[in-house]
Design brief:
10 helices; about 80% helix; about 0% strand
């Protein structure tokens, strides 16, 4: 039986790129659609689009060579934590949906913030500040932009999320590359000392 630290080190070896790439792609499409579709319809389109991120990520995972969906018997406890954060974000829609009856333009704000919360546990898991930076930047930016651009909320907010995703994807990739170097260096040291 492995310790929690051993599971964490194993989880840190993952690329973790498929979900952010899928999120970035989805929000970019939503931002483009927001330029020419009436905002009253964009709320429903945003729900559908963001609800598809996980499924899009399953396809992207094949391209990034990641095992996004692992059999229960093969799961690391941190895989379970990740799946729990996905479920947590989906449950947040229970707040978002009633709010749309009062103001449909709250959708990119509320969905953008709620779906960004899943980055916080990732920071703890990876022992890296990326998730905290992503969540705080995303939340603060979306609130400010929601007030600054009342007529273009379905365009400006999705593109702000895309920019934050691009930064985070770069950071995740750099983190993964550094993790590989450390693992390779550790293996070389063990080989030389053994």
């Amino acid at each position: 039986m492995k310790t929690l630290d051993q599971y964490r080190e194993e989880y840190k070896q993952k690329k973790l790129l498929a979900m952010p790439i899928a999120g970035c792609f989805t929000w970019a499409v939503l931002g483009i659609l927001g330029t020419f579709i009436n905002s009253q319809y964009m709320g429903l389109i945003t729900f559908i689009g963001t609800g598809m991120i996980f499924y899009i990520a399953l396809g992207i995972a094949k391209l990034t060579n990641e095992a996004l969906f692992v059999k229960k018997s093969e799961r690391n406890p941190f895989d379970n934590l990740f799946l729990s954060t996905v479920l947590m974000s989906v449950m947040g829609y229970g707040l978002v949906i009633p709010m749309t009856q009062f103001d449909h333009t709250t959708v990119p704000l509320s969905v953008g913030i709620i779906s960004g919360l899943m980055w916080l546990p990732l920071s703890w898991t990876l022992q890296h500040p990326l998730g905290i930076i992503h969540t705080v930047t995303r939340t603060v930016s979306l609130v400010i932009l929601w007030y600054l651009f009342p007529e273009d909320r379905f365009v400006v907010l999705p593109f702000a999320i895309v920019l934050i995703y691009l930064f985070s994807i770069y950071q995740l990739y750099s983190r993964w590359q550094n993790q590989l170097k450390q693992t390779h260096s550790s293996a070389l040291n063990v080989g030389q000392n053994g």
